[in-house]
Amino acid sequence: MKNFLLTGRPGSGKSTVIGKTVSLLREEGVKVGGIYCPEVREGGTRVGFEIRDLLTGEAGMLARVGLEGPGVGKYGVNLEALGRIGGGGIRRALREAEVVVVDEIGPMEVLSGEFRGAVTEALSSPLPVLAAVHLRTEKGFIGEVKRRKDVKLLEVSPSNFSSLPSLLAGEILRLVRTKG
């Protein structure tokens, strides 16, 4: 398997595991691209999510309370940034990186056809993919991604949270090194 999907409850540490795995891979000289979507907090309360291209550092607001755009829960989703930075960042990683990261394939992100197309290209490419995927969703695009025969689905939990980054980095490193 070359596609690693992390799932788990909100707050389980999927993004943290991805971030630590990316750091370990970069320490080994691996070029990692794709997107990362950290929380935006104000006064200790989550008010939205940013979207960042891991290769260029370009960032934008993915979703925010009160933002104009399609709604997911209490957040308005910025489809322009999602397509441009999300879809664009994934496709850039396919051209320029050795590993593609997608944090996350969730209800907000799949609103963009550009994003869905880029995710499908990444999963079908020869490059290793490390992605976070929404836990409970089994229908639509997210369900299709989870049911692919070429994905390994790993649930992040308190018992494996600290060991997953080194395990994932080791497996991905082996894939990258055997290609060269």
Structure write-up:
The chain is of the alpha/beta class and 180 residues long. The mean pLDDT is 95. It has a domain at 3-35 and 87-175: 3-Layer(aba) Sandwich (Rossmann fold). It is globular. A hairpin with a 2-residue loop joins strand 3 (39-42) and strand 4. The protein has five helices and ten strands. Strands 1, 2, 3, 4, 5, 6, 7, 8, 9 and 10 form a ten-stranded mixed β-sheet that branches.
Short description:
The protein has helices spanning 14-27, 79-96, 113-124, 140-147, 164-179, and strands at 3-7, 32-36, 39-42, 45-53, 59-65, 71-72, 75-77, 99-105, 129-133, 151-155.
- CATH C-level class of the domain at 3-35 and 87-175 is Alpha Beta
Uncertain runs with pLDDT below 50, 5 residues or more?
none
- The amount of beta strand, in percent, is 25-35%
Give the ordered list of helices and strands: EHEEEEEEHEHEHEH
Main sheet properties: 10 strands, mixed
Q: For the residues shown, what is the average pLDDT?
A: 95
Count of distinct strands: 10
- Percent helix among the residues? 25-40%
Principal-axis shape equals: globular
The value of Rg in angstroms is 15 Å
Q: What structural class should be given to the helix and strand makeup?
A: alpha/beta
CATH architecture of the domain at 3-35 and 87-175: 3-Layer(aba) Sandwich
CATH superfamily of the domain at 3-35 and 87-175: P-loop containing nucleotide triphosphate hydrolases
Kindly identify the CATH topology of the domain at 3-35 and 87-175. Rossmann fold
Distance linking N and C termini: 17 Å
- SS field, number of helical segments: 5
